[in-house]
Design goal:
By secondary structure, this protein is α+β, with helices and mostly antiparallel strands. 70% of the residues lie in helices and 9% in strands. Strand 4, helix 14 and strand 5 form a beta-alpha-beta unit. Bound molecules: guanosine-5'-triphosphate.
């Protein structure tokens, strides 16, 4: 898209020569009106300075306008522009250059905050001053009447152009505001979905050890079991807890208990494969799901975990139950946990770190 600043207002507002023609017709302005206005150009030209002075005396008497004009430099610039506008009104040339200048005036008024009511009041006082000048100097009553009518129509024509720029500029502002709001809404959406993903991730993790909690394990188990059944592959579950953990807590304190739980999850991490799923099942109970592993390979993994845990905490022991299923039919996760739990209690009865398969 072409930059706005590279387009004239005529282009921006899509006002073609045909559109100008149609607008002149709507204002009932014709060549004869143009001629009438042009005929009084010498008269107006001779008095333009005093017309401008009178116009600004009337304008500055209105507080709202005086505030908007603000300072002497601005007033002088405005006087220069008004001087030119008055001469343009009587130029007899109401073409694209004329129209573009009117649109620009509208844009400037909108930008500095001149409301339509103030613009209309200004145009009205300019018209009265010009009418007075014509009244005082023109002798032919009929020509005077027609010239005033032409001027009136032309001022209406100009006013529609100025108002169109007001409206178009307001629409642009609205569109910009809408775009900003949409961008903000999009950025919020991205933030919310990022945060939701983070929260979902957190909801699956045990906060102490950082491994999966039971909920996440159950979700993963259903996916795993479906794929293992399809592939006719074996599946094992290691289930264990820390012996006399309550006593560890009681004797050394809760923090020490926490540290032991963290050491265990670290030992698990070190000895499992990428595809295995470790989980803190609850309290001092842990679970590891091992896809594509039979009980024998699961036992080897459990032995390695026990050995590395014993290196750090030789005085504590783990009781382990292992169950496997498949490769043909697979048990449900709950059935596996039920069996592994029983095995774990059998192991506990034997005392010391024991594994029952
Ligand atoms: N430090 C700590 N302790 C926990 C946490 N979660 C559970 N516990 C404690 O773990 C202990 C588990 O005790 P029990 O279920 O009696 O198990 P146990 O003492 O290991 O007894 P056995 O299983 O028969 O060997 C309880 O005292 C719980 O308070 C935790 O996050 N941190």
């Amino acid at each position: 898209m072409m930059l706005r600043t590279h387009q004239t207002l005529l282009d921006q507002m899509k006002i073609s020569d045909a559109e100008i023609q149609s607008r002149l017709e709507l204002a009932a302005l014709s060549l004869s009106h143009f001629e009438l206005l042009k005929d009084v150009l010498p008269l107006i030209n001779s008095q333009v300075d005093s017309i401008v002075e009178r116009f600004y005396i009337s304008q500055l008497a209105i507080d709202e306008i005086a505030v908007l004009i603000g300072d002497a430099d601005t007033l002088n610039r405005l006087k220069g522009a008004q001087h030119q506008y008055i001469l343009d009104l009587f130029s007899g040339q109401y073409d694209s250059t004329y129209v573009n200048n009117r649109l620009r005036i509208g844009m400037v008024h909108k930008r500095i905050g001149v409301e339509p009511k103030l613009y209309l009041s200004a145009i009205c006082s300019l018209k009265l001053i010009l009418f007075e000048v014509l009244d005082q100097s023109m002798t032919d009553a009929e020509v005077l009447r027609q010239t005033k009518e032409a001027l009136d129509k032309l001022l209406y024509f100009d006013t529609t152009l100025v108002f169109d720029t007001y409206i178009s500029s307001m629409i642009s502002e609205l569109e910009l505001a809408k775009k900003k709001t949409e961008m903000y809404a999009n950025s919020l959406e991205v933030k919310v979905s990022e945060r939701t993903a983070q929260l979902e991730e957190l909801a699956k993790k045990d906060p102490l050890t950082g491994i999966n909690n039971q909920r996440a394990m159950r979700e993963l188990a259903s996916v795993l079991l479906a794929s293992l059944t399809r592939r006719q592959a074996p599946f094992s579950l290691i289930y264990f807890d820390i012996d006399n953990f309550k006593q560890i807590n009681d004797q050394y304190g809760h923090l020490k208990g926490d540290e032991v739980l963290k050491v265990i999850s670290e030992c698990i991490r070190q000895h499992i494969r990428e595809a295995d799923v470790p989980c803190r099942y609850g309290g001092d109970e842990f679970c590891i799901m091992l896809p594509d592993a039979d009980a024998q390979s699961a036992q080897a993994v459990a032995e390695r975990i026990i050995a590395s845990f014993a290196k750090i905490h030789p005085d504590f022991s783990l009781s382990v139950g292992i169950v496997d299923t498949g490769p043909g039919q697979h048990m449900s996760l709950d059935d596996m946990i039920g069996i592994a739990d029983k095995k774990m209690y059998e192991a506990k009865a034997l005392e010391g770190s024991r594994i029952i398969v």
